[in-house]
Design brief:
Layout lengths: L3 E4 L4 H6 L4 E4 L2 E7 L2 E2 L2 E2 L5 H18 L7 E8 L5 H11 L6 E6 L10 E8 L3
Parallel strand pairs: 6-7
Antiparallel strand pairs: 1-2, 2-3, 3-8, 4-5, 6-8
Length: about 130
């Protein structure tokens, strides 16, 4: 059986809900839904570009902690509270993946855990050796 690696950023959500930010088994990596929260506070409330950039930076950090890179990402899922934000979210997503672009899906949701949160991003990667 392949070795399992886990990484946690130590957020309140991870601790209270009982999950890791990243889990790698073999060459497969899953990154949990990631929102723009730092020190328990929503980053850039209501700002889709800044929140997407923050979440994607945290995803990149999490990938690196388990030996993967953004270029290994094969799919992202972006949960949004307002599809009208797609251009700003897409701009941040495109900046995070300038060369190796993953498949991506945007899913509308009614709400997210905290007021001011407008998106959540999860990712899956396959590490190429």
């Amino acid at each position: 059986m392949a070795e399992r690696q886990s990484y946690s950023t130590g957020t309140v959500f991870e601790t209270e809900f009982g999950y890791n930010r990243a889990v790698r088994v073999g060459d497969s990596v899953r990154i949990a839904g990631t929102v723009a929260v730092e020190d328990g506070e929503v980053v850039a409330p209501g700002d889709p570009y800044e929140q997407a950039s923050f979440a994607l930076d945290r995803i990149e950090e999490s990938l690196q902690e388990v030996g993967a890179e953004m270029s290994d990402v094969v799919i992202t899922r972006v949960l949004v509270t307002d599809f009208a934000d797609w251009e700003e979210i897409g701009r941040a997503h495109g900046e995070a993946f300038p060369d190796e672009k993953p498949a991506s899906t945007m899913i509308g949701v009614d709400s997210l855990p905290e007021p001011g949160m407008v998106l959540e991003i999860e990712a899956e990667a396959i590490v190429s050796e």
